[in-house]
Specification:
27% helix, alpha+beta, 3 helices
């Protein structure tokens, strides 16, 4: 079983290999693993590390080494990767007037659907690779 540090390092390497123009992302960024405020805000478990975040005026979404979390209007929703069954990012390629922010849907193993924010455009690659890489690592363990 890989450590949280190893999962974070592998995932960030995957994002960096595939993402473009990281400095141009408006709402998204690779999360700082030493950000104590972020760790406390999302109540991460011991050794759990932040990987990727999307922060807008509406919500703050975090992909950690163990879960997908989002804080909006003082409420936190979360889904552990172990209970993640399906992810639907949507198809926004080629849209002429695509919004800067959209949603991605996750379906957990009991069939319940949760929606989280995502930045569209080049920044979406960071989110997609963070979620998909962590899913692959978890499935292999």
């Amino acid at each position: 079983m890989k450590t949280d540090r190893s999962i974070r390092n592998i995932t960030i390497a995957s994002i960096n290999r595939n993402a473009m123009d990281i400095d141009s992302w408006r709402y998204s960024r690779i999360a700082d693993d030493n950000d104590k405020n972020l760790i406390e805000k999302f109540e991460l478990c011991e050794n759990e590390l932040p990987v990727f975040e999307i922060k807008s005026e509406i919500a703050h979404t975090l992909i950690s080494t163990r879960q997908i979390l989002e804080q909006s209007k003082g409420n936190i929703k979360r889904l552990n990767f172990e209970f993640l069954d399906e992810v639907v990012y949507g198809n926004f390629k080629g849209q002429i007037t695509k919004p800067e922010l959209s949603i991605f849907r996750v379906i957990e193993i009991h069939g319940n659907e949760l929606k989280f924010q995502m930045e569209t455009g080049k920044a979406s690659i960071g989110l997609i690779y963070s979620v998909n890489t962590i899913r692959k690592i978890k499935a292999a363990d």
